[in-house]
Amino acid sequence: MDRVFSFPRPRPRGLLGRRFEMDEQLVLLGGIALSVALLASLPGIPLKILGCLSTAGTCTWATMVPYKGRTFLRWFEIRRTHRRLLADGKLLYRSVAPLAGRRRDGTPEPVAQPVGVPEALEWITARTAYGDIAVLLQPTEGMFVTCIEVEGAKNFGGLDSADKEALIGAYEYLLKETAESGGRIQYVQWLARLLPTDPNAHAHDAAARRDPAAPSWLSDSYEQLVDTVSVYAEDRRLFLVLGIPYTQDLSAEALRYQTLHDGYAEVLGKEIEQFIRGLSGAQLRWVRNLDEPGLASLIHHCYAPDHWINDTRGMDRASCWPAEMDAREPTRMVARSWEGSDPWYTSTAWIKQYPVLPVGINFMAPLLLYVSDVILTVGVTMRLLPADKALEDAMADVTNEAGQADNAPGKITDPREERELGASASTMHDLANGAAGVRLTGWVTVTAPDPELLVQHRNTVRAAAVKSQLALEWCDSEQYRAFANTLPMVTGLLKD
Hints:
13-stranded antiparallel sheet; 21% strand; 15 helices; globular; alpha+beta
């Protein structure tokens, strides 16, 4: 029997219970306190009733009544931040990389990053048996981040049930081993990049390079060879980003070396190398480490796809950011690369809800495999949890679901509550039986060369997400921040 997966619903992280977020609880509690104060201070019963109802009704409306797809309280902070950044001019970015220059040791002088990206990034080069790899230190996030390119099983869909189960078990073992081994890697981010390519590019290149003076038999032979070459219409890339939190133990171990920079490079290099050695056990093929030029090229390509991923010429920590970026428009972001003069339009959505019903292993195939002619990035950030911690959280979720269910006598139980309780209980039992525990979030970024095509591609991606039983929510007025969650930065998930 094929394995099925069930996802419990996302729950708020409030101070009391898990029905409301902390700010929503504070507004409701403030409304209650203000209502009590008005009851005690206002003269006359009509004024007391009017003041109490108006205060309580306003707080309830701001936190619970739907407003433009969310609630007024959730839109308040988003719009306030957007207006402040507009006033500061930070939503309009122009890179100063050509004017930055270089240091005495030849390394480029770091430049300011666009808004939404973690600030004050430090670039470190770690050495492994598989080659050099770039490590980004994010001081504001307390995180070291590194990226490798991998390949999965290309014929996964054609395998029988036993082979699929073996591959799933191997990948699950990799997650459990990483979480339970006592290593430093605690976050994993998957970035699937889909790019449409010209299927006739090879034929055009062959025609441009053809020598008119070549013998006819040689030209005929080459034409037959070109006709037999199979050219894919899409270029699909899979990147695995690792997040290592900054700790005092890590810093103490790095201080044993000559400099702190060298210490981080040695310690993190050993940790990354050990993880790469375990990829084969999960049936993942290591392709390459992304060194500084490779990582810089990937970041630049995410902003403007006319810069090719493999083109690392002149790419470094200064030139990785786009030449220009404009995030003033609430529904999209515009960026331009160093090579081109035409802008690229980008829009990012948050995966608000994963499937509420049990699904198979390939439930995301309509989004990852069946979308064509769309420049798309799907990012999933995972927090690897030890078995005890994951089981403890799952038991708390089941307790909250059971406590929030309305089981009043004589009232029909809401089937949706029964479904959510069943999904939470299923997750708890799976963890008790040895499943790997993760906390995850997902983001989808769509890029197009013009605004009209971007709207069309957004609708295409939304339709594919519905087929995958995913609920998307476009991050209007915070596109600059949402887009950064599909960069190799291991962002988008609340830290503990």
